[in-house]
Amino acid sequence: MNVIEVENLRKEFKSYSSRSGLKGAFRDLFTRNYKTIRAVHDISFSVKKGEMVGYIGENGAGKSTTIKMLTGILTPTSGKVLVNGMNPHKEREKFVRTIGVVFGQRSQLWWDIAVQESFRLLKKVYQVSDQDYNEHMDHVIKTLDIEPLLDKPVRKLSLGQRMRCELAAALIHNPPLLFLDEPTIGLDVLVKLKIRQFLKEINEKYQTTILLTTHDLSDIEALCERVVMLDEGKIIYDGSLEHLRKHWGEGKQIEFQFGNEIEKERLAMITFNLNVHWIKGERGNIWIAQVANPKEDMSELISRVVAAEKIIDLSIQEISTEEIIRNIYEKGEATKQEVYSF
């Protein structure tokens, strides 16, 4: 059973462009120039009940626009959308009772009242019975560890505390489908881990379907087996995360910590005829070597670097999902077409 069905979905916006100078401003009073911006370009995909799907892409790729169409906030320019068997923007009142939504940069809680009062208001809005509310929310509140926060106004909560309360608010009516748009933005590691564990738990317990958009690919790796990758409003990949790693994650990363400052030009000279890409680490004298052909080049690379420079430490790792996806977006249209083809 498909919870989400999208077919040839498109969303276009008209953007006003002003003319320069006083003369241009005067002309704009009578005639305006518009251009059409296509945020989402004829995308098609489906999501089955109980799936946890990562919806990823660069800024401006069309992720949030898609989520807003799937939740009924925006009306599509063209195409077909069915979510929980309903058209989101035509059957809105009935539809919103079947979904939960968390936008990382927007709040559904009332700013100046206690968290539990917001919960009670949402309980009335969704017409949840006292028995269902108590049975379900007792578990949610304990799992997310927000019981000490219930008496506090939302404005007095930290970002991590507020996001846990936002997630709980989205689940008051125990929806079968949950949309999460950047739910862990700006959160510390411990809060992220708590939210991830909770999402896994509700997915296993209630078979809750989750569509997750985020720039933090560790969230995707922890929660989702399937990813949908968007670029300039088009889907360039829809498949398993493992399949993406298998085809684009070949190779190794070797992290070198040098005893002295060293420039990229010096490293390139040491490894001049090897298939190696160097990246500066975030701390100290650390450089990361990406080796495309580890069987052929790795031993030679290590022996050359160790012979030429003082090494304090080194570690060998698989190429991360974040690095794979960054490479796909950075390598241009030919690479994206190749990703799309498989």
From TrEMBL:
Tell me which UniProt keywords the record has, alphabetically. ATP-binding, Nucleotide-binding, Transport
Q: Record's SMART domains? A: AAA
Q: Name one Pfam family in it.
A: ABC_tran
Establish whether keyword ATP-binding is in the entry. yes
Superkingdom to which the source organism belongs: Bacteria
What molecular function does GO assign, one term?
Answer: ATP binding
Q: Where do the ABC transporter domain residues begin and end?
A: 24-257
Q: Which Gene3D superfamilies does the record associate with it?
A: P-loop containing nucleotide triphosphate hydrolases
| Annotated InterPro entries | AAA+_ATPase (IPR003593), ABC_transporter-like_ATP-bd (IPR003439), ABC_transporter_ATP-binding (IPR050763), P-loop_NTPase (IPR027417)
Identification of the protein by name: ABC-2 type transport system ATP-binding protein
Species in which this protein is naturally found? Aeribacillus alveayuensis
What taxonomic classification does the UniProt entry list for its organism? Bacteria, Bacillati, Bacillota, Bacilli, Bacillales
